[in-house]
């Protein structure tokens, strides 16, 4: 016996081993302890490699999700999800990758699916009473992150018969063949992981249970397609991102916006915030000359001459900021040298801009949401 292993020989002859034989066995045990240590090292290395593969897959899915400009681009995201499952050594034979986006006002949802013989497919699915959909609703209501459930042949067939009768497939061809194939299969397991208003999972017709590693992969990759949960700033112009489920349209430390945050304009951060239309608020800005970090600061007099098109905010913009990473060669914004804890935030600083929505968090004089404490005195401005 050693610290973590035991090596033994069973003796059925009734003749005790000699001291020499016992000594040899002990020496074998010592060598095997070294082998076991090596085994643990390899196991740890493999786990780290797998985690790196999952993280790379997650980043790829997340990047593709955030690059969407239109909701229909989810058809491309689901292809990425399907491919990444395969890259993570999850067999997708007789399995379908599914992203579901739930309707906020009903139990209906849109499904985006992909498999080895379906390039991509968007399906509008109305809720109907059935164990498959009831399990989804239960998971949403109870905050269940993940489940994997196998359904009987009778449950599978009753589900897909109603599913193909009631769902809207748009102009997708070959639906009759897909219905025939689904009803011919003998097995059905659904394994989704949930975010606030969406889920990602695998519809499995193979009859082969997912491995533990496969389940971990689904759970880990899933947040990459989280389309409507809290994103810090849930901007309306980013496809698929809805109103924050916790904060609604109320910026912490401020007053309600009355509508979802936008990229620019009255409800946004960039552009002229006295102009309601986001595009109109940025009109002409891209034609303005921008100074680089070694030249004079932007003066904030127009949107185009404001730091990152944040009207009135001062700063310096580096011409090659995306290619360099040094302490002196990067974009820089102006900050205010404050003399007291309750000093007002300058309108020409990032804090001054943020204070317009989050007043109580940005040097408000009395901490009240409606007292933003924004100063137009820029005498103490300094480059940060």
**What's the CATH architecture name of the largest domain?**
2-Layer Sandwich
Q: What letter string, H or E per element, gives the SSE order? A: HHEEEHEHHEEHHEEEHEE
**What would you call the structural class?**
alpha+beta
Fraction of residues in helix: 25-40%
Spatial extent as radius of gyration: 30 Å
Index terms:
single chain; 384 residues; alpha+beta; Beta-Lactamase; 2 domains; six-stranded antiparallel β-sheet; three-stranded antiparallel β-sheet; 8 helices; 31% helix; 14% strand; flat; disordered C terminus
Produce a short descriptive summary.
The radius of gyration is 30 Å and the shape is flat. The chain is built from 8 helices and 11 strands. It has helices at 19-66, 74-87, 131-142, 153-166, 175-184, 212-221, 278-281, 350-355, and strands spanning 95-102, 109-115, 118-125, 149-151, 188-194, 198-204, 315-316, 332-336, 345-346, 374-375, 381-383.
Please give the structural blueprint:
Blueprint: H1 19-66, H2 74-87, E1 95-102, E2 109-115, E3 118-125, H3 131-142, E4 149-151, H4 153-166, H5 175-184, E5 188-194, E6 198-204, H6 212-221, H7 278-281, E7 315-316, E8 332-336, E9 345-346, H8 350-355, E10 374-375, E11 381-383
Parallel strand pairs: 9-10
Antiparallel strand pairs: 1-2, 1-6, 2-3, 4-5, 5-6, 7-8, 8-11
Helix pairs in contact: 1-2, 4-5
Characterization of this structure:
By secondary structure, this protein is of the alpha+beta class. The protein folds into two domains: 173 residues, Beta-Lactamase, CATH 3.30.450; 136 residues, no CATH class. Helix content is 31%, strand content 14%. The chain contains eight helices and eleven strands. It has a six-stranded antiparallel β-sheet with strand order 3-2-1-6-5-4, sandwiched between helices. It has a three-stranded antiparallel β-sheet with strand order 7-8-11, with no helix packed on it. α8 links the parallel β9 and β10. The C terminus is likely disordered.
């Amino acid at each position: 016996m050693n610290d973590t292993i035991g090596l033994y020989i069973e003796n059925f002859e009734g003749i005790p081993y000699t001291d020499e034989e016992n000594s040899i066995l002990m020496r074998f045990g010592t060598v095997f302890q070294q082998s076991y240590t090596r085994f643990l090292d390899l196991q740890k290395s493999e786990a780290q490699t797998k985690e790196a593969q999952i993280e790379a897959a997650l980043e790829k899915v997340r990047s593709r999700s955030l690059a969407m400009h239109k909701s229909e681009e989810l058809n491309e995201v689901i292809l990425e999800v399907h491919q990444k499952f395969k890259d993570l050594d999850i067999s997708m034979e007789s399995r379908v990758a599914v992203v579901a986006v739930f309707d906020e006002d009903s139990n209906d949802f849109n499904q985006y699916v992909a498999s080895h013989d379906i390039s991509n497919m968007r399906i509008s699915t109305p809720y109907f009473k059935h164990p498959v959909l009831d399990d989804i609703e239960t998971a949403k209501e109870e905050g269940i992150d993940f489940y994997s459930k196998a359904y009987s042949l009778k449950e599978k067939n009753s589900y897909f018969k109603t599913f193909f009768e009631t769902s809207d497939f748009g102009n997708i061809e070959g639906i009759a063949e897909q219905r025939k194939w689904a009803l011919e299969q003998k097995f059905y397991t659904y394994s989704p992981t949930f975010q606030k208003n969406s889920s990602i999972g695998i519809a499995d017709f193979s009859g082969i249970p997912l491995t533990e590693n496969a389940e971990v992969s689904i759970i880990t990759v899933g947040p990459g397609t989280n389309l409507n949960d809290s994103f810090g700033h849930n901007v309306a112009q980013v496809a698929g991102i809805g109103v924050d489920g916790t904060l609604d349209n109320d910026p912490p430390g401020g007053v309600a916006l009355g509508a979802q945050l936008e990229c620019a304009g009255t409800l946004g951060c960039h552009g002229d915030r006295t102009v309601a239309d986001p595009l109109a608020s940025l009109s002409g800005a891209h034609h303005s000359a921008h100074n680089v970090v070694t030249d004079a600061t932007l003066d904030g007099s127009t949107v185009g001459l404001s730091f990152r098109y944040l009207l009135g905010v001062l700063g310096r913009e580096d011409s090659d900021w995306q290619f360099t990473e040094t302490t002196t060669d990067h974009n820089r914004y102006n900050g205010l040298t404050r003399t007291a804890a309750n000093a007002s935030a300058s309108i020409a600083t990032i804090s001054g801009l943020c204070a317009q929505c989050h007043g109580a968090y940005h040097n408000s004089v009395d901490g009240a949401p409606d007292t933003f404490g924004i100063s137009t005195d820029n005498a103490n401005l300094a480059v940060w």
